[in-house]
């Protein structure tokens, strides 16, 4: 994977300027990475939207079964699914009009990331929002 999916300007922009993050794969299990990252970003002022087939409320926010059901504009879609499912989520993010997709550590799908770039979305891949927040937000 090359650095085009880890552009520091894009990372800073998403961490500093975004307001709404949809977390695909976010359930109510606090031991899961999606929950921990959503909780961290929520504590830092981001609105989080859980997207999971069970559509449960998580961290005090209404859950939705799929991205297409989310009734508000989404700045960033966090793709907290295994890499083999990431492409479908990226395609849903493009269709939903999201501004960006963020694929966390070890979730790598270069073809899907390129589709998102081609559709005009910002893309971050194989990076942890929490780690990047500490390292890059104010850098």
UniProtKB/TrEMBL annotation:
Superkingdom in the source lineage: Bacteria
Ranges where the CoA-binding domain occurs: 14-107
Any Pfam family: CoA_binding_2
InterPro entries (UniProt xref): CoA-bd (IPR003781), NAD(P)-bd_dom_sf (IPR036291)
Protein name: CoA-binding protein
Organism: Planotetraspora kaengkrachanensis
């Amino acid at each position: 994977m090359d650095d085009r999916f880890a552009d520091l300007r894009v990372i800073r922009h998403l961490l500093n300027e975004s307001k709404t993050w949809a977390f695909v794969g976010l359930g109510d299990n606090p031991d899961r990475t999606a929950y921990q990252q959503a909780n961290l970003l929520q504590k830092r002022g981001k609105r989080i939207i859980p997207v999971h087939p069970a559509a449960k409320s998580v961290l005090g926010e209404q859950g939705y079964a799929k991205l297409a059901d989310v009734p508000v504009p989404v700045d960033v879609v966090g793709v907290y699914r295994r890499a083999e499912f990431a492409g479908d989520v990226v395609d849903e993010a493009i269709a939903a009009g999201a501004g960006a997709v963020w694929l966390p550590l070890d979730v790598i799908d270069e073809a899907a990331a390129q589709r998102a770039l081609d559709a005009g979305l910002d893309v971050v891949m194989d990076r942890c929002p929490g780690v990047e927040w500490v390292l890059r937000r104010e850098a």
